[in-house]
Design the sequence.
């Protein structure tokens, strides 16, 4: 079986973009992408500060800020650190965000949690009974995982410490009087929380004992037990530190024949990537700091001394505490009509195209589609892309079942989906061993599209069924991210997707796509042509309207075209969750453009293009953001929605609600500042996500069979922008 892929014959389509006139248009500087990214983190932090958000959800948003900032430093740090002036600005903002998150935790969230019976206590503040409880738990669960690494025992004098997390630089004195320096890593295999039973005095009045819980951070417990890790030595001092390493460089130099082994080597070497920042306790003596920095091979100017070294990523563990009264209410997503459990999915797709809006529409039909395809004797082949998937993926297991039943299975796995490499490598090996045709895309070009196509023998013909989505084949994400997906058996669409799979699997030749837009082949040209069409409508005196929903808008060519659209009289609404380089509301340039960002319970992840098209509305869904990397350097797909009813649903039920949102929406001003969407006195509060939830609950009927329960979103950088 084929386990690699030759270079896909993709070439950027530079001649059909419809942007020839844009180069002559004067425009101001674009917003800086890094500063725009930090503004997004400020919006997430605002959710942690919002008293209307359930308490443990506020803690979750705090953990998201920490995770995103870590990722920002590791991926973008090498870029902005090279610009001295920019570095000063960005470092000041990053420090402020970390500090504000720490203050929010200690001054606001800890007291609020205590009032609800969840006590977060310093180890030194425990009474004797509580301390015994904590120590016994640590002895039973944690002590064996604490292993010091002495610098003196390293032949090279250097050590590899993973990114993020917390560590101790421990100075010890031997019986001989010699001092040594060692590093103790706070093990990430353990929960950062050590539970204990609060004493009667600590329990909150009015709460039952079962509702009252106590927690100590694991690093504090380890610090109190450090002597046990150094028998025969005396602990002189211990100082916390954490490091951030550079995200791994591109791996397009790897031969695809060895792609799997190369990806495994990249992952295993991650702990030795260059250090971007070393954050240390400012009390650490200079001699200790210098020795530690040398051992970690820390570049000059990369050491930061702070009052408190903490790990805000660990708040995620707090947010998972099972207190339903402190979380968003659970909800059961709607199963669209005709897609009840055990229904023939293929028959329903033959009857009409189906638009799924997750998490409001259940992900179950997608799982059922692959499961039924695996078991259906008339199905000949299943093809699917996997960018991110669950650890125990029902879809992956269905594919393995299909292989056992003798079906052809083509799987395109992205080995360099950051932070999911190990999982993808594991699944790739399982598929190869099971006999699947596994390929890994094009060297240096990630396969980011989310698509599947199933070939089924029906009578005298082969019919193909396609699934195209903005979201991954990941059940947890499907209940925490908003995504849009199309199920269709349209011959032209399914044939194009099948041809794309053939290219990605190493088939020779090229393909002229008829019904889908594919980057880096036709996608850039398509968006330019569609925007130009609205400009032409406006110039003929007709109403021009564009609504684009995307995770990020950074592509300067697209932004220039949108400026031209505004100047031509086209009304442009942009729903951009994260980074946005476009400057809206500038008179004479972008005064008809509005940019809003929605941050709420679910991570906004769907991509939608809507164009009024002179009254014959046109809409597209798929995986592509409006960034140079998505238009030029990745394999992405956007597909046109053919059904008029589905286009109306996108426009009226989904996009219109986001534009009307005055609860979770922030508007981008011309100066780059985001402000809450205004709400006039007496005007009702409109929350798009809440209204979509209410609508889904109203549509839902009692149906037999299992369905997942939507819980909480994780806006981690690794998944939100899908690097």
Sequence:
């Amino acid at each position: 079986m084929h386990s690699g892929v030759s270079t896909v014959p993709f070439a950027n389509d530079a001649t059909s973009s419809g942007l020839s006139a844009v180069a002559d248009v004067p425009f101001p500087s674009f917003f800086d992408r890094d500063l725009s990214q930090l503004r997004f983190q400020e919006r997430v932090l605002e959710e942690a500060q919002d008293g209307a958000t359930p308490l443990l959800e506020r803690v979750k948003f705090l953990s998201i800020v920490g995770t995103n900032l870590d990722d920002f430093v590791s991926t973008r740090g090498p870029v902005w650190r090279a610009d001295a002036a920019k570095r000063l600005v960005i470092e000041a903002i990053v420090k402020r965000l970390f500090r504000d998150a720490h203050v929010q935790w200690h001054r606001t969230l800890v007291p609020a949690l205590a009032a609800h019976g969840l006590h977060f206590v310093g180890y030194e503040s425990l009474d004797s009974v509580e301390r015994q409880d904590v120590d016994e738990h640590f002895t039973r669960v944690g002590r064996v995982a604490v292993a010091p690494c002495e610098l003196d025992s390293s032949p090279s004098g250097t050590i590899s410490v993973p990114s993020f997390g917390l560590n101790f630089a421990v100075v010890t004195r031997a019986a001989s009087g010699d001092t040594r320096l060692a590093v103790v890593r706070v093990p990430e295999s353990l929960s950062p929380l050590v539970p204990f039973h609060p004493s009667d005095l600590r329990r909150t009045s009015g709460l039952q004992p079962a509702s009252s819980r106590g927690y100590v951070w694991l690093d504090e417990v380890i610090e109190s037990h450090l002597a046990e890790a150094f028998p025969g030595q005396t602990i002189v001092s211990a100082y916390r530190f954490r490091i951030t390493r550079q995200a791994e460089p591109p791996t397009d130099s790897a031969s695809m024949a060895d792609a799997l082994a190369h990806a495994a080597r990249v992952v295993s070497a991650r702990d030795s990537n260059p250090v971007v920042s070393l954050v240390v306790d400012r009390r650490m003596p200079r001699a200790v700091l210098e020795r530690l920095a040398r051992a970690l091979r820390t570049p000059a100017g990369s050491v930061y001394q702070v009052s408190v070294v903490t790990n805000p990523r660990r708040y995620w563990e707090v947010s998972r505490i099972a207190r339903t009264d402190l979380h968003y209410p659970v909800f059961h997503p709607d199963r669209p009509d005709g897609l009840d459990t055990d229904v023939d999915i293929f028959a329903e797709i033959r009857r009409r195209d189906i638009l799924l809006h997750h998490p409001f529409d259940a992900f179950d039909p997608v799982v059922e589609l692959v499961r039924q395809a695996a078991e259906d004797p008339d199905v000949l082949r299943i093809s699917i892309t996997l960018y991110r998937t669950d650890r125990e993926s029902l879809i992956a297991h269905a594919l393995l079942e299909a292989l056992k039943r003798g079906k052809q299975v083509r799987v395109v796995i992205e080995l360099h989906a950051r932070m999911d490499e190990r999982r993808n490598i594991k699944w790739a090996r399982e598929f190869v061993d099971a006999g699947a045709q596994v390929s890994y895309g094009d060297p240096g070009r990630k396969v980011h599209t989310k698509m599947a196509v199933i070939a089924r023998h029906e009578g005298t013909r082969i019919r193909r069924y396609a699934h195209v989505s903005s979201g991954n084949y990941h059940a947890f994400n499907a209940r925490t991210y908003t995504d849009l997906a199309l199920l269709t058996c349209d011959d032209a669409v399914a044939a194009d997707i099948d041809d794309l799979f053939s290219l990605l699997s190493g088939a020779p030749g090229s393909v002229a796509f008829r019904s889908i837009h594919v980057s880096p082949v036709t996608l850039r040209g398509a968006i330019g042509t569609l925007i130009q069409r609205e400009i032409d409508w406006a110039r003929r005196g007709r109403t021009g309207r564009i609504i684009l929903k995307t995770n990020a808008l950074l592509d300067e060519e697209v932004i220039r075209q949108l400026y031209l659209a505004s100047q031509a009289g086209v009304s442009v609404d942009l729903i951009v969750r994260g980074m946005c380089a476009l400057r809206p509301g500038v008179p004479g340039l972008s005064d008809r453009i509005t940019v809003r960002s929605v941050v709420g319970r679910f991570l906004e992840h769907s991509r939608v293009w809507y164009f009024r098209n002179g009254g014959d509305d046109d809409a597209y869904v798929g995986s592509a953001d409006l960034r140079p990397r998505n238009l030029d350097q990745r394999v992405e797909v956007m597909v046109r929605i053919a059904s008029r009813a589905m286009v109306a649903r996108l426009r009226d039920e989904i996009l219109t609600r986001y534009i009307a949102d005055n609860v979770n929406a922030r508007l981008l001003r011309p100066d780059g500042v985001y402000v809450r969407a205004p709400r006039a006195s007496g005007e009702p509060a409109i929350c798009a996500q809440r209204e979509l939830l209410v609508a889904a609950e109203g549509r839902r009927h009692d149906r037999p069979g299992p369905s997942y329960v939507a819980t909480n979103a994780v806006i981690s950088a690794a998944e939100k922008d899908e690097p």
Summary: Confidence is low (pLDDT under 50) at residues 1-27, 250-256, 701-722.
